User: Fold GIY-YIG domain-containing protein from Carnobacterium alterfunditum.
Amino acid sequence: MGDILESEIFSFNEEGIEKIQLGDFKNFPIVYILYKKNSNKQIAYIGQTVHAKRRMQEHYKNSSRKQLEEILIVGHKKFNQSATYNIETNLINYFIADGKFSLQNKSQTASNRVHDYYQKSYYNNEIFQELWSVLKEEQLVNDDIETLKNKDVFKLSPYKELSEEQLELKERIINICEKHINDNTKFVYFVEGDAGTGKSVVLSSTFNTLQDLATEKDSTFYKSKNYLLINHSEMKKTYEKISESLPNLKKKNFLKPTSFINKIDKGSIEEADIVFVDEAHLLLSKEDNYNNFSYENQLDEIIKRSKVTVVVYDSKQVLKIKSYWNEEKIKQIKNNYQSDTFELTTQFRIQADDEIIDWMDAFVNKKILPIPEIKNTSDSSFELKFFSDAEEMYQAIQQKSKEVGLSRIVSTFDYIHKKDGEDYFIEEGTFRLPWNRTGYKDTWAEHKDTINEVGSIYTIQGFDLNYVGVILGPSISYDEKTGRLKIDTSKYKDTEAFRKRADLELHEFEKVKEEIILNSINVLMKRGVHGLYMYASDDKLNKRLNELIV
Assistant:
């Protein structure tokens, strides 16, 4: 084996396996892909080993694996087990995003956190790029790496590398589920964390492991009935897409909360053992006939229909009064059941120094602070920029989309939009684009045409962009006397978000309306991984933001 990546294809049969020992792969760690590609359903299994022949013989005895037809073995003189394990995990993530093959892989028994090792970036970049070129040449993959990196399916893959904090949370959730699945009382586990702390990634990874364990006879979770609920159509599409690539994730296990509750009530599904609730801040906290929900609040009804409920929640992402959860309501639910809480604190989405995150947090608390110095390093590279003209910001976002992909314009809900199938537009000076279009088969941000649209909190919540351009609409102004943001709730056009409820006093109702607008700003500002561009429709705020530029 030379100093370059080498690969060879063998038939996956007894004769082909025998030939493996004749090559250079005998005593080195290798990465392999077992596959069957010339069929209606293309299937693959990805692995790594230091004993290629022995491992293939083991696979050949496996009835599921035996249906596969070929083996691609990849080796390199510089391979070590840390590197091959890392490459194996990366391959699984990229194969899930690519979608050409349905994988037979189950959750690894070892934790899916790859520790740092010597020349890790070399293996992640140069070697992996070379390997991907081999896979494209053999027609085992469709898309290039950069395209796949920008896909929501890739970012939410159950095989994503977890941080120490995230891994601790995953292990705690599994342990809690194991401990309480056979209890006679309900148990609720709250996972709290700001936008970008990786809540959904942990949930995706943990749910996949749980569903794998549900197929194992010696597991506590064997034949358990588990669901992941998402009250967000765009996010639900992503989870369902992931399920197409993995053996034990099924679309039927990803439901909207009302559908889950009503299915159990009608007897079409049994009461659940374990339920994960992603984006629980979107759950209804009151009756809502429009959504066919006739109970007091969705969270209580979900808990009543499951043994263990894992709830992912961020109070700063509540966007509608009918989904308003104050601290008192959450505290009451925690007191009504056995419960525990875990808080994720590390920001993963935004590749910026803490000072930039602090500036954003201050802004959504109506404070406009001086712009901190941006120290771009190898670990963080972020651009915070203000525009006096919306069209100019749009041109800048278009340029970023050409350079790095997945860059979009989004706006607060300060512009008219009706669900009548017609197009509605945001107009700011010479800027004019359709906005809040829905109904795409793919998620909004990934559709190529949406570079020429404006997204809303409902099309982008929960997702990443490389660069985000945020239009702050007329409801967000600037008070020159106090030097703070001024919110005019009467100018906000999301009428559904402000629908009155009887259990809120008038003064509290007005306070919550302002809180919802500030939450929407928080959601939009924290979408960009590498950059946040901002334009304010209000003249006073526009002037003040552009004065911050040194």
In short: The mean pLDDT is 92. The longest helix spans residues 506-525. The chain has three domains: 6-145, 164-344, 354-547.
